[in-house]
């Protein structure tokens, strides 16, 4: 295979243990939505559960159902709002939906009752993200309603932060407002004699910057995949107190994208390379044609603005990235041979920054046709390694 995504499981485990050490007794929900941010949901799920994760998070019912088909028995939370038509599948796959409104809860309850089961659900409270979740004002009445449903069990209460990864003072204040509004809502539920179940809020940013948001469980995604989107040391002095006693944590990028030089050709000074003729050779040179393009997830926007590594040396990408191939300038004299290995991405954060996006988008967009290869401590892992977990 010429283009591969090497998934370094040992790095994932180190990132996981960094979180685990930091949050102590608190449980960990591992978001494996979008095929585990492109890393392979099943392998990441198995690795995480073996390492002590409590549950998994997916975006859609079908992502959850797929994990069930592969034998995952741990609790699986659905982070997005399912369609009512998916209710039978939620129940069949024993997935745990977030509840944002009484109407959906009532439909779920009706179906669960008809199947004579009690389905665990988590109440989602929107404290400022304005995505899914009920308003803080409605939360008590919906919690009461869920508690009154014989087909439902209130197994958790959650919220989600909009700017927890920011060290700007205004953003820190916003996260604290979200936190206060969430705490008040949870307290009201408790005061009403309702057990809220597992209380959770923190994404990666909050694991790094907001220890007061950890409650019973944290849901860090991007950090586990190797990207630390906030630094403790950048927090303003007014916030440093809350971080006192916490060692800064470190993340190592888990995914590495590799390809090969499929052809080397001579290009003369003044000749152009690729579509649009955006690059003109400044001198006679050797061009390495690489077997990766935007259909593999290498963003076309990074054309003429990225460097790849071959045998430890860096070479610029030149000319437009095409659907399946791109070009590296190997220079006038080169020892590089056809079929040499090329490291295209080792740090998705760097690539993302160069085109004004985030590492999430880069790893998620590595397409299906790029084979995922799993490695731990330099050793290749096969499916049977994961089956042992
Ligand atoms: C994606 C997601 C997370 C993880 O966010 P990161 O920024 O990757 O840590 C946590 N909770 C919910 C509800 C999400 O959708």
Task: Give an overview of the whole structure.
The structure is a single chain. By secondary structure, the chain is α/β, with parallel strands linked by helices. Helices cover 32% and strands 25% of the residues. It has 13 helices and 20 strands. The strands form four sheets. Strands 2-3-4-5-6-8-9-10 form an eight-stranded parallel beta barrel, surrounded by six helices. Strands 1, 11, 14, 17, 18, 19 and 20 form a seven-stranded mixed β-sheet that branches. The longest helix has 23 residues, at 169-191. It is elongated. The mean pLDDT is 97. Pyridoxal-5'-phosphate binds at residues 31, 79, 160, 203-204, 219-222.
Summary tags:
alpha/beta, elongated, 13 helices, 389 residues, seven-stranded mixed sheet, 25% strand
What is the gist of this entry?
By secondary structure, the chain is an alpha/beta fold. It has 13 helices and 20 strands. The longest helix has 23 residues, at 169-191.
């Amino acid at each position: 295979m010429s283009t591969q995504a090497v998934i370094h499981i040992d790095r994932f485990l180190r990132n996981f243990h960094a979180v685990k050490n930091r949050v102590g007794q608190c449980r960990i929900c591992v978001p494996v939505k979008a095929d585990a941010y492109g890393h392979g949901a099943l392998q990441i799920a198995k690795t995480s559960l073996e390492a002590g994760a409590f549950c998994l998070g997916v975006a859609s019912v079908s992502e959850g159902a797929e994990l069930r088909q592969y034998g995952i028995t741990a609790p699986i939370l659905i982070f997005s709002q399912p369609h009512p038509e998916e209710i039978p599948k939620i129940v069949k796959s024993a997935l745990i939906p977030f509840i944002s409104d009484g109407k959906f809860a009532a439909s779920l309850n009706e179906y669960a009752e008809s199947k004579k089961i009690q389905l665990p659900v988590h109440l989602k409270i929107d404290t400022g993200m304005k995505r899914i979740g009920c308003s803080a004002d409605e939360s008590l009445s919906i919690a009461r309603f869920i508690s009154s449903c014989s087909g439902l069990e209130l197994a958790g209460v959650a919220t989600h932060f909009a700017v927890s990864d920011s060290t700007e003072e205004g953003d820190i204040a916003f996260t604290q407002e979200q936190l206060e509004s969430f705490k008040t809502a949870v307290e009201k539920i408790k005061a009403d004699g309702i057990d809220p179940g597992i209380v959770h809020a923190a994404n990666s940013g909050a694991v790094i910057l907001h220890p007061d948001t950890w409650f019973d469980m944290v849901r860090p995604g991007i950090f586990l995949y190797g990207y630390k989107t906030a630094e403790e040391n950048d927090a303003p002095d007014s916030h440093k107190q809350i971080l006192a006693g916490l060692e800064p944590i470190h993340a190592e990028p888990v995914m590495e994208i590799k390809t090969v030089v499929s052809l080397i050709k001579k290009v003369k000074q003044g000749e152009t390379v690729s579509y649009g003729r955006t690059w003109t050779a400044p001198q006679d040179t050797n061009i390495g044609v690489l077997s990766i393009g935007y259909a593999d997830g290498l963003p076309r926007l990074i054309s003429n603005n990225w460097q790849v590594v071959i045998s430890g040396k860096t070479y610029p990408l030149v000319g437009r990235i095409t659907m399946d191939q791109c070009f590296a300038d190997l220079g006038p004299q080169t020892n590089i041979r056809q079929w040499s290995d090329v490291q295209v991405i080792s740090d998705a954060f760097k690539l993302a920054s160069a085109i004004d996006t985030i590492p999430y988008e880069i790893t998620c967009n590595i397409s299906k046709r790029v084979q995922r290869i799993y490695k731990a401590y330099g050793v290749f892992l096969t499916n049977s390694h994961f089956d042992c977990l």
